[in-house]
Amino acid sequence: MAKKKEFKVGLYAVIVSIVLAVVLGAITVFAFRTRYTAYSPEKVAVQFADTIVQTGDGYNAYKNTLLAQNPKLKYGDFIRNAYMRPYVNEDAPQAEFVGTGSAEEQEKIDTVYNLMYEYYVGLLEHVGWDDYDTFFTSYFEKLVEVRHQIYGDDFMNTDYMFSALEANAATYGESLTGAEEQIADDGKTVLRKATQGLYQQMYGADYRLTVTVAAKEELSVDNAEDYISALEERLTDAVEKGTVKAAGDTAMLSAFEGLSCAGEVNAVELLTVTISAGDSISATVEIPVVRIGNSWYVDNTNTDTAGLYLAK
After folding, report:
1. Which one-letter DSSP state was computed for residue 306?
2. Which bin fits 70, alpha (ψ -120 to 50), beta or left (φ > 0)?
3. Which of 9, 56, 116, 151 has CA 20 to 30 A from 303's CA?
4. What average pLDDT does the structure give for the chain?
């Protein structure tokens, strides 16, 4: 009688484990690459442009640029060290109403935010986020002045600076998109009425803005070298200006020196994006992107984003 072939459970389990590991690993890598925008030059360019197009938010659009390439310094930390440090004054006494949650405190907060919003819109119109250096410097300098005027104190920290800037950016976005009605937990009290935004007036109540890559040019080795040389000059200029501002402040100096990354760029592409409102094209903008390691970044030193601010 022929001997029955034994079913090797242990071996089968090992094989299944290996196959599952390979499959799951492939799925994980695919999901990671799909979600991680920086791996794709097209996704980086679209994300950058779309952030500005949808809400006019040039501030957060910079998360996709060379300002965010330093592995030792996140975008928010770059702003803290490069632009907020000169205005931080946490040892100064604060106005008595601060932290009370009183109506007076809320009124003062609203007053500061409203005054700074007018200034923020003015900076958008006359400076623009392409000149982020002037934008950040002017904004925080003005915030110190306005807080002193309204609060009567000289206190300032980075949390307060971020809260004002981000509130203004959000308010500007709502001025374009409109805002939905907000109802309190009681289901009756209207906390905020619905508003119509400028985009709804421009494109209709059901408007839809779409950013797509219309064309892409990968620079040849020679052209890429020329581009990188020009990028290095622009970054060197930014670092030199930052060095003067830093005036020996180590953290501030380090933030600006971290911008010097042209030597790490290994590829350059020029992407043309179109902004469509329904079936019609509203704008066409070229966005240069560069690769450092495996990640792509918008070269913000060489962008003209005026065409992305559709309401201007």
Report:
1. G
2. beta
3. 116
4. 90
Q: What is the CA radius of gyration of the chain?
A: 25
DSSP-derived secondary structure letter, 2: P
Q: Judge contact between 62 and 129, C-beta under 8 A.
A: yes
Predicted local confidence at residue 28, as pLDDT: 39
Which stretches of the chain are assigned E, i.e. beta strand?
Answer: 182-183, 190-192, 209-218, 265-277, 280-292, 295-298
Asked if residue 308 lies in contact with residue 53, where contact means CB atoms within 8 angstroms, the answer is yes
| Span 5-54, pLDDT tens digits | 343 444 444 444 444 444 444 333 433 443 577 999 999 999 999 999 99
Side-chain-facing half-sphere of 148: CA atoms under 13 Å:
10
Tell me the C-alpha distance between 211 and 274, whole Å.
Answer: 6
Q: 271-300 burial string, b = 16+ CB within 10 Å, else e?
A: bebbbbbeeeebbebebbbbbbeebbbbbb
Q: What would the two tokens of residue 302 be?
A: 């060489």
Alpha carbon distances (Å) from 264 to 27, 68, 85, 243, 293: 30, 14, 28, 21, 7
What pLDDT score does 206 carry? 92
* Helix, strand or coil, per DSSP, at residue 97: coil
pLDDT of residue 278: 86
Q: How far apart (Å, rounded) are the C-alpha atoms in residues 107 and 100?
A: 12
State the Cα–Cα distance between residues 277 and 264, nearest whole angstrom: 38
Torsion sign over Cα 251, 79, 71, 295:
negative
Write b or e for each residue in 217-256: b if 16 or more Cβ atoms lie within 10 A of its Cβ, otherwise e: eebeeeebeebbeebeebbeebbeebeebbeeeeebbbbb
Confidence of residue 280 (pLDDT cuts 50, 70, 90): confident
Q: Model pTM?
A: 0.86
